[in-house]
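Reading is simple: each integer encodes one residue's backbone shape. An example follows:

___
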Amino acid sequence: MVMIMAEMDKPEIRKTGTTTIGIVCRDGVVLAAEKKSTMGYLVASKETEKISQVDDGIAMTIAGASGDAQTLVRYMRAELKLFAIQNQRKISVKGAASLLSNMLSGARYAPYMVQLIIAGFDKEGGQVFSLDAIGAIEQESKFFSTGSGSPFALGVLEDGFKEGLSVNDAGSLAVRAITAAVERDIGSGGKGIDVMKITKDGITKENYPFCPKPAK
């Protein structure tokens, strides 16, 4: 009985449910995410920000427990500012990914409950890295998707991705992939799709509606 009561008293953790995407393009990278967060069966927010800029030309997406993810975003912003001050230069995208991996690995015995994509543009071009909750890191050569809707999104990405996509074409593909996920994943939805494009000219972020269903 005590164990049952303990389970009942456990607070709900706000989660981002989530479908996020990172795509490598010929002229940069694209990150995209929908905007729903949940607490159990409750839609906690329809306007959650799941893509955060952490430095000039570098951003990350979040999936998992919102509190853990927001903490990591704050840590990354602070650490990357310190790096720039101490080294008199901006960190590379790969360096930022390695730093984030070390943060996650260092907390493996009380892990951050997240799945992340960090991406950006530097002298090496556009780069996308995926990370799990205990710091495993993988550089993606084409695309990646995280969150509960990722199996549906990945099917669209596999079908639609072509080498040498522009950021504009990749943005359209990301919107189609997330729309497919929203159709089938109860943890994904909210008010449209945020799409961030990162190129040598900087970062732009826009919100797009879900793709309209084809007319019958």
